[in-house]
Amino acid sequence: MKPTAPVLILLGPPGAGKGTQARMLQERHGLVQLSTGDLLRAAVAAGTEAGKRAKAVMESGDLVSDEIVIAILRDRLAEPDCAKGVILDGFPRTAVQAEALDDLLAQTGQRINAAVSLEVEDAAMVDRVSGRFTCGGCGEGYHDRFKPTDKPGTCDKCGSTDMQRRADDNAATVAQRLQAYHAQTAPLIAYYENAGALARVDAMGAIEEIAADLSAVVSKATT
Ligand SMILES: [Zn+2]
What was the pLDDT predicted at 170? Predict the structure, then answer.
């Protein structure tokens, strides 16, 4: 990996479209998305030095240490497909891990170019997710507020009255997930804000608009 290749971190709560945006960054900028889970599995499967250590720890039922994850990441960043830059997903999760990552990158003259926070309005997210329901007859998707059926409880398309709601799509669950996300990422946001690497992107708009904003962040971070 060249010292000039961007290293991005993508932060965003469930429902903010992180996966979609990471894929679009991959297509447009050639950035490789590295998720911690995939990295671990690949290192174990390949039987690298760090992979062997990770395997032993996991088999004993323990959590893989930051040091092992960093070692696996170091190996992965050295592979040719990372030459154009990477998007880290799932690591770091804590400020301590963020510091360890900075140390690792410094060894090759690199740094985090941008930690992008996909920003959502919690209340709007709860509305968006919690009102969803689906027709059990034909699979058509509806929403209490944004796309209601013409006749309450009856599908516009097939006339079925079998309307289904996912148990985890209720307001309380969504609010809880968002709260957990904010609690977990607050220290990271603060860390990267202090480092001058934080970029906030409004993630409430259309997918294409969000992608354009993210692209701009990437371009700015790499010049
Ligand atoms: Zn239907």
Answer: 77
The answer to whether residue 151 is catalytic is: no
pLDDT in tens, 50-102: 999 999 999 999 989 999 999 999 999 999 999 889 999 888 988 999 999 99
Q: What is the distance between the alpha carbons of residues 220 and 206, in angstroms, rounded to a whole number?
A: 21
In angstroms, what is the span from residue 195 Cα to ligand 1's centroid? 52
State yes or no: is 41 an active-site residue. Answer: no
DSSP letters spanning the chain: --TTS-EEEEE--TTS-HHHHHHHHHHHH-PEEEEHHHHHHHHHHHT-HHHHHHHHHHHTTPPPPHHHHHHHHHHHHTSGGGTT-EEEES---SHHHHHHHHHHHHTTT----EEEEEE--HHHHHHHHHTEEEETTT--EEETTTB--SBTTB-TTT----EE--GGGSHHHHHHHHHHHHHHHHHHHHHHHHTT-EEEEE-SS-HHHHHHHHHHHHHHHT-
Specify whether 147 is catalytic: no
Residue 208 alpha carbon to ligand 1 centre in Å: 29
23 counts as catalytic: no
- The answer to whether residue 93 is catalytic is yes
